[in-house]
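Notebook entry, structure prediction.
Reason for the run: the old model in the group folder had no record of what sequence produced it. Starting over properly, with the input documented here first.
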Amino acid sequence: MLRRKAFKFRLEPKPAARILLAQFAGCCRLVFNKALALQKELLEAEKSCLSYNKLAGKLRCWKQEKEWLFLKKCHSQPLQQTLMNLDNRTRQERFLCVECGYKENADFVGALNVLRAGHARLACGDIDLVGGLAQEPAQLATALA
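New structure, fully documented this time:
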């Protein structure tokens, strides 16, 4: 018999560690936004986006700039993972249907699919417009399966 267990953990960092975690998160957010702005500039100039490797090279340059020296205090792994996430985001943002050749932004296509599914459920009477879902989530999961 397969037995599945789950454990919940809660980290209670000391005040100094909380400050460091907040600094790491802020540095990651800053690097993401700076790299995203750079990618947008390139796209507006009708050039191709930079790859992860080129962005990582830019990160090294940013760490040398006088106004960005505080990035040296942050570990390189979270910053590099942030650039990897951005690279994946820009590569996977385009949807291409292999059957008909339809091209569109992946988020737009996802929103259309959610809208169509909502309209289908509304037409079938599965949704109560006032109270949201007419079923409990567990019942809904079995109904959809």
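Summary: Residues 15-92 form one domain.
The old model has been moved to the deprecated folder.
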